[in-house]
Amino acid sequence: MKPRELVLALRAMGLTQKQIEQRTGIPQPTISKIGLGRVSDVMSRHYIALLAAYEQQVREEALKSAARALRQPSADE
Predict the structure, then answer these.
(1) pTM for this structure?
(2) CA atoms of 67 and 49, how far apart (whole Å)
(3) Res. 76: pLDDT tops 80
(4) With 51 labelled, which of 17, 20, 58, 70 sits at a CA distance of 20 to 30 A?
């Protein structure tokens, strides 16, 4: 995924730019610029931080989904 796609995906998962900043260490104005496509060359450390935040969020979403599925009674019960 490209940096802009990572920012947009994190936003679509419900994270604010401030939360992305807290998870990545990338200043919020820079996150905004990346999300808007106004940064043509993202530093590799920013890309790695965005990718790590995205992977973490995907894992968290999967765990939440699994926990919800375990709490719901099955149709067989």
Answers:
(1) 0.85
(2) 27
(3) no
(4) 70
